[in-house]
Amino acid sequence: MTQTLRTQPLSHDAFAPFGDVLEIGDTPDMIINQGLCGRFHDLAKIDLIGDGARTGISLFNAQARSLPYTLEMMERHPLGSQAFIPMTAHPFLTIVAPDVNGKPGTPLAFQTKHGQGVNYHRNIWHGVLTPLAEPGLFAVIDRIGDGNNLEEHWFETPYLIIGA
Amino acid sequence: MTQTLRTQPLSHDAFAPFGDVLEIGDTPDMIINQGLCGRFHDLAKIDLIGDGARTGISLFNAQARSLPYTLEMMERHPLGSQAFIPMTAHPFLTIVAPDVNGKPGTPLAFQTKHGQGVNYHRNIWHGVLTPLAEPGLFAVIDRIGDGNNLEEHWFETPYLIIGA
Description:
Two copies of one chain form a homodimer. By secondary structure, chain A is an all-beta fold. The first copy, chain A, has one domain: Ureidoglycolate hydrolase (Jelly Rolls). Chain A is built from one helix and 17 strands. In chain A, a hairpin with a 2-residue loop joins strand 10 (99-100) and strand 11. Chain A is globular and about 60 Å long. At the A-B interface, strand 5, strand 6, strand 8 and strand 16 of A face strand 5, strand 6, strand 8 and strand 16 of B.
């Protein structure tokens, strides 16, 4: 029977086992540009392995989804972290799961607010990019290099993600 | 006497001597996620030098400016490239200049459109982050590490940047 999961607002604490929330806080780490700009410094754990791997910047353009959303598959990248920076003010879904014996356990579904990106840590189960509005345009900072960096798991019974 | 510079739309060809325009084109390099997402792959030349340097993701929150804009200073980073990804749909100014005997020559001012980010190549003269609307929120992919990675040049006579 399909299990229903409710979204929750994305927060550092809840997301910490899976990755980094990329957002500004109240106080910048540095004030630069003659006081006109705050720098929130070094927010993501970029973690790449494998010979010749390097960090790259790509753009993803994904079709918007809506709630309720059927989660049929999750994936992970054994060779590298992967960060998603929305290039709009729109929210998106970020779905993660703990690993249980090489498969995703029960997923957690988060909905972002404007100004939040995420960085999935290396080898963390996550759903594919799921913007909630068009255009689903993101900058992606991930591993460029050879090697098999994608593992997928298809659920026998999909999950249904519903709003909070 | 103050020299006036007109903005031009940001384009790959005009920007190529200074850096990379980070934007999607008509045809993705790869189609992923069961056909629902296009990947525009590896768009930025990330170029870091110096022992122990690594790539990081930071967020910048800058005050919005408006045109006409007075350009008093340009800077460059001798140890690394620096990419700016807007987290809104708003345009921003990106001002670059060729190097002439260790100083910026006549600047070029570009105005972005939605969906464009930039990556300044290492040691290219550029203006500070100048969003044209609030919030001036950007993800910045640049060098994390020790060393003096900032050189500033203040113009004796500022430039005045006006709209196209």
